[in-house]
Design brief:
This protein is of the alpha+beta class. It is 25% helix and 35% strand. This is SRPBCC family protein.
Length: 157
Amino acid sequence: MTDYWPTAELDTVRRLRVLAAGIPGAAVTERVFDVPLSQVWDFMWGDGRDFAVFQTDMTSIDWMERNEDQLRMLVRSRWGMRAYLQGTFRFGWCWLQSRFLLIGMAAAPEPGGGTRVALTGGVRIPGRAALVPIGVRRESTKSLNRLEVMLQSPPHP
């Protein structure tokens, strides 16, 4: 590479938008909360177990393994199905996928204050880099609604 190539720094929400744009059927749902990023991310992730509380279609995390920014977990859906998710996790960023499922979450500070949260995900089409486009925005909106209620509740332990 040469020193003359331009570089662009993307915050986590913009990075999620770029990745989702390359996946047919993916939709990004966003909302701004008048709460600092650290508090929002604590409710979205916490020790990792809060992920199943925040994501409306998850009921439990059966196990989780983390090695630096790499994450593997076995989750159970509200429909009883299990998914072995693996991917990348950093503060304000989580991108997980299994054979049939994709979950992307990002949170970044807003220039005027507060935190922007962006979600994407859905059921993957086997053999293709695509998502079934049914219900993607509805589920993300439910998760953001749940997060809003969580953020209005008493402080997180």
